[in-house]
Amino acid sequence: MKMAIWAMGALLALVLLTGAIRAVDDAGVTCPPNNPSCPCSDETTYFKCSQAQPGYACVASGGKHMLVNMIGPDGIKSLKSLCACSNYPGYSEVNGVCVKTTCTDGSNTLQNGDCSATKPKQCSGGSLIDNSSACDCPAGSTPNSNSRTCDPRLGCRWKTITCQTGQECKYDSTKSTDDGTCVVKQGCNYHNPDCNLLSENCDTSTNPDGVCKTKSGCQYSNPACGSGQVCNAMTGRCDASGGDAPVPTITLPTKTIVNSTNTTSSLVGNPLGSLNCCFLPAGGAAAMVGLISYQRLRKKEEE
Q: What is the pTM assigned to this prediction?
């Protein structure tokens, strides 16, 4: 009899206790009274610890079977130890609840508070969250005022500003805050610097930006003439030295003239003979007529 009274009291105390326990994220499942075979919403057996939600157990509350946190101050003592966070790998107790202590970041496992290699991600409660104030931002971006996300930096280094044609982006790669400056490209093709027009050419054959090179020719000392040579500025070549250059000799042809008496005479060394055809055609013809007339006159005198 005493045993029965004690059992009824314990049951009443359990009902009152479990009714005061706060249920979390579970609307509960209506079950027939005194039916321990009725599970909770995640299929957790009545009065057992949930495997899907660490720290919670399936208990009766308000006529329903509900998932209730056993880690808090109102948890059932026997279930509190069974549902302890330490019984769940990767979880620890924080402020009366079980919190996951690790995150999976690709092939890496991070602990709570660890920053991911993918900025600005941080492991928090088993999840990767944005935290730019703690984990910084990737190159080319800067923390937003909300301290979580990142905003792109402005500069030609980050391709958010495009340099004009003939310009290039200069920056110090060792400084993450150097966003880059557009400057004129180096090279004579961009007039930076300009070549000396009197003695240099802008050569782009080996460098598209252009390199100033000395013009070819001895007048530019490229190459310079050696000993016993003089520079011919007209041809750019080195000629042999040794006094005045010889005057070219013109060899005049011999011309045979046939007169009316079938006699012939030869003109040799006529200073104009070799130039008549090219420079004095009219004068040469007149001279020829005069010469023939002169020969006829001499012929008559001899007769």
A: 0.48
